[in-house]
Amino acid sequence: MHLLDLDVLKREDIEKILKYAEYFKKNRYNHEKILKDKSIAIIFEKPSTRTRMSFDIAVHELGGHSLIMNQNEIHLGKKESIKDTAKVMSRYVDAIVARVYEHKTLEDLAKYGTIPVINALSNLSHPCQILADLLTIKEYKKSFKGKKIAYLGDGNNVCNSLILGSALVGMDMVVATPRGYEPNALNVLKALEIIDEYGEGSLKLTNDPIEAAEDADILYTDVWISMGDEKNLDKVLKIFPPFQINEKLLEYAKDDVIVMHCLPANRGMEITDDVIDGEHSVVYDEAENRLHAQKAVFKFIFEASSSEVR
Ligand code: CP
Ligand code: NVA
């Protein structure tokens, strides 16, 4: 199986992945070596600190071998078609983890290869981030039921995956963006279908940051300009500031609100120093949880793939 976004998962899959992640977190150095004799290609078309380190360390601690390859070190899509790269890599390694500009690159790797492909961020989505975030929310809030999560800012890749993750665990989510910067319509539709399927949770889009922040259990934000985005900075600085997470906005949320950001952050833009460094911030737990969640993803995907009929 592939993990290109969270819509391939059911609620029980998320529960399983979070359980695995909790086990890996509790047993950091003495857990099962599920990647023994396995090699994992980890490809980056864009920069990364957390994803690169957490995947590399996850593979190492699971007993496997990782090959980290930057875009300019391999032929991906330039000197060689994605199809040929996918077919060749499938002869060498057991899975591909890739951070790409165009989501279609992941789809093509999955289409032409014969091994699992894991999305390490694309223009459309960032599922591994959200699995780590769900683990973090569970740690702080114990359960997802009845929790209000507010995402403020740009309706980007992180937001697109967060709305699926939130729907799958049944949270009530409000997304507040400036007009024209809403999340991907297809992801919104999929999230609403998931909410309908389980009869739990909700999703609302608004252009009002205060409506989103009001009584929130979780406040989440991300950069206003993502890697590869061609937004005009002057325009962004004109329309995005009301969506900044700052002390004033925090007053609308619940007293025990947690503040989340996938990092890297543009301090002073989407979030202020006092909030990201403040008592409500859980950003470094989120970052750490990438490691545990990614180990869980490997376990889940290899179990699922071994039971698939080939
Ligand atoms: N959150 C996240 O994916 O960070 P990196 O860009 O550092 O990998
Ligand atoms: N939305 C950000 C997330 C970085 C982890 C980006 O795509 O640049």
From TrEMBL:
Pfam families: OTCace (PF00185), OTCace_N (PF02729). PROSITE patterns: CARBAMOYLTRANSFERASE (PS00097). The keyword Membrane does not apply. It catalyses: carbamoyl phosphate + L-ornithine = L-citrulline + phosphate + H(+). One of its GO terms (biological process) is L-arginine biosynthetic process via ornithine. Residues 2-139 form the Aspartate/ornithine carbamoyltransferase carbamoyl-P binding domain. Coiled coil: none annotated. It is found in: Cytoplasm. Belongs to the aspartate/ornithine carbamoyltransferase superfamily. OTCase family. This is Ornithine carbamoyltransferase. The lineage of its organism: Archaea, Methanobacteriati, Methanobacteriota, Methanomada group, Methanococci.
